[in-house]
């Protein structure tokens, strides 16, 4: 198969082309800069940007892959979850392409796409693994068996802010700009991660071992900044940024490793924009080395939203003999994760 993947759930317009597990090429556009002045993604702006970017980005993907539109044998698209207006644009584009080419269309759950991203870099996932997805919109721990044949077990999620969202909010209150991840990390580079003890919510989390909460952490940072400013002292940005980053990383690594150990597995996969974070990468690598666990993190270009990861799921579905989802599939902005395909086939 030569599978075209389409992604438009948030602020990235992505097209990727995958054949037999190999990424042939991709095109990516982002409206992140257009949202900067609002400190977060504005759905209507994202949707308009997808509409503008769709055809040129598809052309880039085809040129990058060295294939013609007519070479595409199957189309896969994110049909949820995501911003409703944004998902609609990519899904409508995917339906048009599938109809025009008279090829099957598969609806893909966005989080299954993230989980599949690493297969394009490091090959097929093992029989079972834990996947930690950390991005601007998600903080999820998944128990993945065969990505497209078996149900995906969603072990945990955030009760409030996502990890990347916490970076974005802390960046805003430290006056560092948007998106927050890169600027907070940069500010943290020279700081002392032990200078402030910020809360590690649900760290023990008895009945919620895999749930996260980051809104209290953001509030604690805000209180600290207020107190220092009230005293008329200079705010130690580097120390606060480093201590905040350490608190996020400690919780992410502890819970992800707990899941791997408790399910008695050997592999942890980390994806999503926050996987760009150097402190997270180092800390996860050290913890995995100590525990004898294999850590897989794809390059950043495959960690953030992209079309290649959706094509990767489509390619797996085709090769597994899955029934196409059909041209009538609805966008499902709040799709629950039970399996890679949307709507969920009866067999799962
Ligand atoms: P979705 O949640 O659907 O994947 P998104 O666009 O919010 O969509 P990504 O594009 O995967 O998510 O990632 C963006 C997020 O990653 C932002 O919240 C950003 O602050 C965070 N991020 C990027 N680089 C870093 C970094 N070095 N450290 C921490 N966070 C980072
Ligand atoms: Mg993004
Ligand atoms: Fe995403």
TrEMBL record:
- Tell me the cofactor note: Binds 1 Fe(2+) ion per subunit.
Report the EC code(s) recorded for this entry: 2.3.1.234
Q: Which residues form the Gcp-like domain?
A: 25-311
Where, by residue number, does substrate bind? Answer: 133-137, 168, 181, 277
Task: Note the InterPro entries from the entry.
Answer: ATPase_NBD, Gcp-like_dom, KAE1/TsaD, Peptidase_M22_CS, TsaD
Q: Which cofactor does it need?
A: Fe(2+)
Just give the chief location class: cytoplasm
* Subcellular location(s) of the protein: Cytoplasm
> Which SUPFAM superfamilies does its entry note?
Actin-like ATPase domain
Role played = Required for the formation of a threonylcarbamoyl group on adenosine at position 37 (t(6)A37) in tRNAs that read codons beginning with adenine. Is involved in the transfer of the threonylcarbamoyl moiety of threonylcarbamoyl-AMP (TC-AMP) to the N6 group of A37, together with TsaE and TsaB. TsaD likely plays a direct catalytic role in this reaction.
What protein does this entry describe?
tRNA N6-adenosine threonylcarbamoyltransferase
Name the source organism: Brachybacterium equifaecis
Q: What is the lineage of its organism?
A: Bacteria, Bacillati, Actinomycetota, Actinomycetes, Micrococcales
């Amino acid at each position: 198969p030569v599978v075209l993947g389409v992604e438009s759930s948030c602020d990235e317009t992505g097209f990727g082309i995958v054949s037999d597990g190999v990424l042939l090429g991709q095109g990516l556009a982002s409206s992140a800069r257009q949202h900067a002045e609002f400190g977060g993604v504005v759905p209507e702006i994202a949707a308009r940007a997808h509409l503008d970017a769709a055809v040129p980005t598809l052309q880039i993907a085809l040129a990058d892959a060295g294939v013609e539109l007519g070479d595409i044998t199957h189309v896969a698209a994110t049909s949820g979850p995501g911003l409703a207006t944004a998902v609609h644009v990519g899904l409508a584009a995917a339906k048009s392409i599938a109809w025009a080419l008279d090829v099957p269309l598969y609806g893909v759950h966005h989080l299954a796409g993230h989980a599949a991203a690493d297969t394009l870099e490091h090959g097929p996932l093992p029989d079972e693994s834990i996947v930690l997805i950390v991005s601007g919109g998600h903080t999820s721990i998944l128990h993945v068996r065969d990505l497209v044949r078996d149900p995906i077990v969603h072990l945990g999620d955030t009760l409030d802010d996502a990890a990347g969202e916490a970076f974005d909010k802390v960046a805003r209150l430290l006056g560092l700009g948007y998106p927050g991840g890169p600027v907070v990390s940069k500010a943290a580079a020279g700081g002392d991660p032990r200078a402030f003890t910020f809360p590690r919510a649900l760290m023990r989390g008895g009945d919620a071992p895999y749930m996260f909460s980051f809104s209290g952490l953001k509030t604690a940072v805000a209180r600290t900044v207020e107190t220092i400013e009230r005293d008329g002292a200079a705010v130690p940005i580097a120390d606060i940024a480093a201590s905040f980053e350490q608190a996020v990383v400690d919780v992410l690594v502890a819970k992800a490793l707990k899941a791997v150990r408790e399910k008695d597995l050997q592999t942890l996969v980390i994806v999503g924009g926050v996987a760009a974070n150097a402190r997270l990468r180092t800390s996860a690598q050290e913890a995995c080395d100590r525990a004898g666990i294999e850590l897989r993190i794809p390059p950043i270009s495959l960690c953030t939203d992209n079309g290649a990861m959706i094509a990767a799921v489509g390619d797996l579905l085709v090769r597994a003999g899955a029934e196409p989802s059909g041209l009538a599939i609805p966008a499902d902005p709040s799709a629950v994760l039970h399996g890679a395909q949307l709507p969920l086939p009866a067999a799962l």
